[in-house]
Amino acid sequence: MAPSGCAPHHWLCKGTMLAGGLLAGFSVLSFLTYGYLSWETLGSSLETTRAELGKELEASVPTTQPHIVFILADDQGFRDVGYHGSEIRTPTLDRLAAEGVKLENYYVQPMCTPSRSQFITGKYQIHTGLQHSVIRPTQPNCLPLDNVTLPQKLKEVGYSTHMVGKWHLGFYRKECMPTQRGFDSFFGSLLGSGDYYTHYKCDSPGICGYDLYENDNAAWDHDNGIYSTQMYTQKVQQILASHNPRTPIFLYIAYQAVHSPLQAPGKYFEHYRSINNINRRRYAAMLACLDEAINNVTLALKRYGYYDNSILIYSSDNGGQPMAGGSNWPLRGSKGSYWEGGIRAVGFVHSPLLKNKGSVCKELVHITDWFPTLITLAEGQIDEDIQLDGYDIWETISEGRRSPRVDILHNIDPIYTKAKNGSWAAGFGIWNTAIQSAIRVNHWKLLTGNPGYSDWVPPQSFSNAGPNRWHNERVSWMAGKTVWLFNITADPYERVDLSGKYPDIVKQLLRRLSQFNKTAVPVRYPAKDPRSNPKLNGGVWGPWFKEDEKKKKPGKIKGENKQKKNKKKTSQKKGHSLNCHLHLAGG
Q: Fewer CB near the terminus (10 Å): N or C of the chain?
């Protein structure tokens, strides 16, 4: 019979009955069957039994650490969610956001690798050397190995860590692989894009390979022509079904969707036949499938006992690409640019643990903030010697308090094509405005150099069968300009440049840029390595830098490590830009 006030199915009741049963059974057996045992032997056996019982009881006690699920969509435009006015239906995202906290002043980076690196390290690109562009498949490059990652920190406090989806943080050495960077398991792709069904990717003519991995090996057994969004969701369901919900889990789900190539199963086109623009129609179908996938993930969290103690975070990795069907309206610019359309993202937090559910957070939040926030929630420790750029913003999100963040370095890219008319003179002798950079301080945003594609692309642009720029709002005064200043709070669409009206504010922000620049480490953007060709690796994209080669060339690796160790003493400039490769085939 259950103890008074204890439901028979409750974990504590089960533990109590289990303890009583084991001890009673042990006593009877010890004295009736093994009466010749000495008290010393009996005591020893009893201690062993108690230890085993303790382990069982410990495993039955629910964790106080929350289960963490971080879902990262790829190339989802700011407008491309129902609650931002999209014609594309996203009932799951709308519901989860409405029941949680919508992040309406939330920033990421304008491209794939930069956002992912900042999420997993809590550091700006200028502090990891990934200031420029993205990591290309043929480059001997990856997230520097001396950077502690979020899953590594969560493992320290007992989390099981799993990644499903797109990595895009480099793989030229085995040490760069997800399973070597803190994940207990990995199922997904290493590159920035690829076919959703065949999982093949060509980086250039003749340089093609298979890109689907399970842990450290090509996942040929999973090459069944399943659409990646659905395949990744099935994998997530399997992980949740096999894990014990009484121990904390970190799930990083980095969907390939809605990145090009534009492909989707036929049934998801049903509601979007009326969209004439083929790219927008395909994109809508892909997003509809993604929305359904996230609903299935949420159902799995509930079915397997995780939901009540879970925190689900949803984020896009950058703005949408209009030429590939994405929409950032009414924001300016697109993926790959430092206009708001490239860096202001769809984001929300959904959790039963939130205090202010059903609210909107308009405080400043950046993708680097997830690193310290999640470690703190997981009851972990952040080492004093880790110089983070992120802030713990849980109270800001959950309780509606002010954000500890007052500025964001969007980036400084010293390699990106210099603006022809930029100069030190245009930067008041404080900054060379030929360099691509962007910074936000309180309400103010400053851009220098070449910020990237700058059109406003309204919904009407997608009304025709092909790409149509006649509806785009274009600016003729861009020629010759290398400095822009906007009050983003008053002018979130960046229509009124105030750089001429407020030169003193321009100077203040240029000085802040200069201060950040003094902390930058050298840019890591090596040339292509012919050894990366999948033909030399069994037709698979994967690590090609072998152990014996490292021994032959120790100087290069030592040089890299020395460069990292001396990063505090370095005063090079920083940055980032360019698009992940754009493919419009398929679908």
A: N
